[in-house]
């Protein structure tokens, strides 16, 4: 069975090009094309694809707002943001909305195919994740104690720094995903951070404490 894909972008030339590229892979099939987020949601009422490829900047409803609604209404549909902006803040917001992948519009065809198949298999694909460092929290104990983090919170940070998802952390610690999410919220509160963007800013302004990079994944992959 081919992977069914819906496209959403207000530039006809771009969607025509993407559709042509995808047609070169017999395992992929474009079923519908929308020109904005609202039109996409209307199409989803009629038929659900496996994958949605969606731009960020569109009239009527933008891609991020549409992705949030898709996450809430159709959680089985996997969304890949495709954008011209290689911006950490935008990538962070895309992850928070529930997107499972992020592609740049200047990517090559192989990257496009690879990301679609990867996301369809249940994995995620974001530009910066392969570069996240694995951290030894014992060497950062003083820093973590400064924020009064518990042993369990440190343990969770250690796992996330190794690029474990929320569900993988829950399975490893034999806890529910809701417990992991509660820990995440408590850590955010202790670090006095309210948004993913604030967390990124914290990371960038505290380069000697890259330990928090791991927690960054935990926040955004929930």
Give a brief description.
With 222 residues, this protein is α/β, with parallel strands linked by helices. It folds into 2 domains: 127 residues, Rossmann fold; 89 residues, Winged helix-like DNA-binding domain superfamily/Winged helix DNA-binding domain (Arc Repressor Mutant, subunit A, Orthogonal Bundle). The chain has a 5-stranded parallel sheet with strand order 2-1-3-4-5, sandwiched between helices.
Question: In words, what does this structure look like?
Answer:
- The protein contains 11 helices and 5 strands.
- With 222 residues, the protein is of the alpha/beta class.
- It folds into 2 domains: 3-129, Response regulator (Rossmann fold), CATH 3.40.50; 132-220, Orthogonal Bundle (Arc Repressor Mutant, subunit A), CATH 1.10.10.10.
- Strands 2-1-3-4-5 form a 5-stranded parallel beta sheet, sandwiched between helices.
- Helix 4 (88-97) links the parallel strand 4 (78-83) and strand 5 (101-104).
- Helix 2 (37-44) runs parallel beside helix 3 and helix 8 (166-173) packs across helix 9.
- 34% of the residues are buried.
